[in-house]
């Protein structure tokens, strides 16, 4: 039976016996019967609660009811003085019982988890508080006292690689706490090596050190540093929005959110939850920053020249396109004019006409465009053949 069930059973027994005594001593009365049943019913309802506060209230009610029962028993036989003495004696007995019970139980602090191991079966269980019974000699022992309050640490990661240059140092501030004491006890990577290292630093035996909160603070901090270092290096190198130290510094908040998400998944395996994480400082070498800014300036200048070249090419295309269209219309007009004039069109004639009109345009004499070109010179007639002589 647990300490909580034992306490509830004792309080209910005291209340029931007290109400029974009151009922038997008092004259038969429906009111007394109703109140006795009502008090017992309320007590049974409160006993179902798992809160120690409710159990304490129930115990106080049981003590008051028992004092009333003692007063009724003694008043009819011992008088007023005897009643006072009986109440004092009963109060002393209850105080002695409470003190004895308190010496046999342990008060468990709410800010730490006490893990107890059964030496026969090896099973480890968490002590249920806020009070618990003492360990059974030779059968139970405390193996660890793990802090449940919030812990904090600052992790400094040096020479962090990016897709280009390196970041000199990133300092990360982390807040975390233990959510699963069992996992923290057995699931920390390289558990034996890590525990021995921390116990050696504390100059204590490992069994004794594990029963101290400071040991677990150091051990959890040590593992948090290791995991945070790996996660930060991976996120800074693999992310797609911060590819150099300048961008890492500018996007530190976005990087911190990404690190927080991944780190939570990693540390949950050994029973810890990260509550907050922030990049407090990102150190970039001034020479590296200067080189990045120069490269960015050159890249910006190259991009601008490229844009200007594209604009010039587009303007040239537009101008040439317009000139080609105009030339096509001009040739079409010349050919149409020659046809209307009844001139026989030949390739040689067309070429000469287009060339001549182009020269007239270059000289600025556009009036010649409306004149008909000179007629072609007729070819000379062939001489008549002589008649053949008669033989």
Offer a few descriptive terms.
single chain, 391 residues, alpha+beta, Tetrahydropterin Synthase, Chain A, 3-stranded antiparallel beta sheet, 15% strand, elongated
Topology summary:
Blueprint: H1 3-25, H2 30-47, H3 52-103, E1 106-107, E2 112-118, E3 124-126, E4 131-132, E5 140-147, E6 151-161, E7 166-178, H4 181-186, H5 191-202, H6 206-209, H7 213-238, H8 245-250, H9 252-267, E8 272-283, H10 286-340, H11 347-363
Antiparallel strand pairs: 1-4, 2-3, 2-5, 6-7, 7-8
Helix pairs in contact: 1-2, 1-3, 5-7, 7-9
Task: Explain the overall architecture.
The protein has 391 residues and is α+β, with helices and mostly antiparallel strands. The chain folds into 4 domains: 3-104, no CATH class; 112-147, no CATH class; 151-284, Band 7 domain (Tetrahydropterin Synthase, Chain A, 2-Layer Sandwich); 300-370, no CATH class. It is built from 11 helices and 8 strands. The chain has helices at residues 3-25, 30-47, 52-103, 181-186, 191-202, 206-209, 213-238, 245-250, 252-267, 286-340, 347-363; strands spanning 106-107, 112-118, 124-126, 131-132, 140-147, 151-161, 166-178, 272-283. Strands 3-2-5 form a 3-stranded antiparallel β-sheet. A 3-stranded antiparallel β-sheet has the order 6-7-8. The chain has a two-stranded antiparallel ribbon with strand order 1-4.
């Amino acid at each position: 039976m647990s300490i909580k069930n034992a306490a509830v059973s004792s309080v209910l027994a005291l209340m029931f016996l007290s109400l029974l005594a009151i009922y038997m001593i008092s004259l038969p009365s429906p009111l007394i019967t109703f109140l006795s049943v009502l008090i017992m019913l309320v007590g049974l309802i409160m006993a179902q609660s798992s809160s120690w506060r409710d159990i304490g209230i129930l115990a106080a009610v049981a003590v008051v009811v028992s004092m009333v029962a003692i007063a009724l028993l003694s008043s009819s036989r011992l008088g007023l003085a005897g009643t006072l003495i009986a109440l004092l004696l009963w109060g002393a007995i209850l105080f002695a019982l409470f003190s004895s019970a308190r010496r046999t139980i342990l008060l468990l602090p709410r800010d730490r988890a006490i893990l107890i191991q059964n030496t026969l079966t090896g099973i480890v269980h968490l002590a249920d508080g806020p009070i618990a019974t003492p360990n059974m000699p030779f059968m139970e022992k405390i193996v660890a006292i793990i802090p449940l309050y919030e812990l904090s640490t600052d992790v400094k990661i040096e020479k962090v690689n990016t897709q280009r240059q390196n970041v000199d140092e990133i300092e990360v501030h982390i807040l975390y706490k233990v959510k699963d004491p069992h996992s923290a006890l057995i699931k920390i990577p390289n558990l034996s090596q890590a525990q021995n290292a921390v116990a050696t630093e504390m100059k204590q035996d490992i069994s004794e050190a594990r029963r101290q909160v400071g040991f677990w603070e150091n051990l959890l901090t040590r593992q948090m540093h290791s995991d945070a270092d790996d996660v930060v290096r991976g996120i800074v190198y693999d992310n797609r929005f911060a590819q150099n130290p300048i961008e890492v510094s500018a996007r530190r908040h976005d990087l911190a959110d990404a690190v927080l998400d991944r780190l939570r998944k990693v540390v949950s395996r050994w029973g810890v939850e990260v509550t907050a994480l922030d990049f407090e400082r990102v150190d970039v070498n001034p020479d590296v920053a200067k080189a990045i800014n120069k490269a960015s300036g050159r890249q910006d200048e190259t991009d601008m020249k490229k844009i200007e070249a594209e604009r010039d090419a587009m303007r040239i295309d537009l101008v040439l396109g317009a000139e080609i269209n105009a030339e096509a219309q001009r040739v079409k007009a010349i050919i149409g004019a020659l046809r209307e004039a009844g001139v026989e069109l030949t390739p040689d004639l067309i070429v000469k006409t287009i060339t001549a009109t182009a020269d007239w345009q270059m000289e600025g004499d556009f009036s010649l465009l409306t004149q008909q070109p000179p007629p072609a010179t007729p070819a000379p007639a062939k001489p008549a053949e002589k008649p053949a002589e008669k033989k």
